[in-house]
Amino acid sequence: MPREPEYSNNEKAFVLEAIQQGLRVDGRQLDEFRKVDISFGEEFGLTDIKLGRTRVIARVSAKVTKPYPDRPFEGIFSITTELGPMASPAFEVGRSTEQEESLCIVAGQKCWSVRADVHFLDHDVVAALAHFRRPDVSVEGEKVTIHTLTERVPVPLSILHLPICVTFSFFHGGEIVLIDATLQEEQLREGDMTITLNKHGEVCQISKAGGTAVILMSFTELLMNKLEEDQEKRVRRDNLLEASAENVRRA
After folding, report:
1. What pLDDT score does 173 carry?
2. Parallel, antiparallel, or unpaired for β 203-207 and 191-197?
3. Which of 54, 64, 128, 239 could form a disulfide with 124 if both were Cys (CB 3.0 to 4.6 A apart)?
């Protein structure tokens, strides 16, 4: 059976007292994310992602296969996660599958089967899918030709949205809210809420599975502050772009 890490009473008291004073053990602010580092391998679809002490390696592959009879116009997309004891004894293996119309080659006969293998190296995949390129294909009648990477430029996957998930953790009856909790903070929090956005800033999902009730004012204040910071960054960026364009016109 998977086991969560155990912390002493002194460790718990220290972390909770620090949070109450607006401090975190890893030195971050309450509204500060962990540092993200993304690197790509030589082959398309191989990605090494680090988020703080969390490390994930994802590999995307594809092959031509026959579509499911009840979905003749769609290809197959599957995600397989490998969560071994090297990452954390608390993990269990999970798997999910979904279909994509853009992966269909010949309706009812041939389609792409794209598989993303996600391996968690340390616990504390969307990038791999965006980096992946499949071979181009041409169809003449019933003849399907799969072109090599030297014959034609490989084709990126058709990804409509790049979801960005932000998890808020609640402490001290919901009066204190922090972002991107560490494993230790996750074990001590009283509740959490995850909001998923796309690259346009549109909310795709809000999930809150139990835990302490959310104090609307505290959460709204944090959210509004982050939105104001984002707006200020966008204004500064637009001003820099406008100034740069003006310099180019004058030159």
Report:
1. 80
2. antiparallel
3. 54
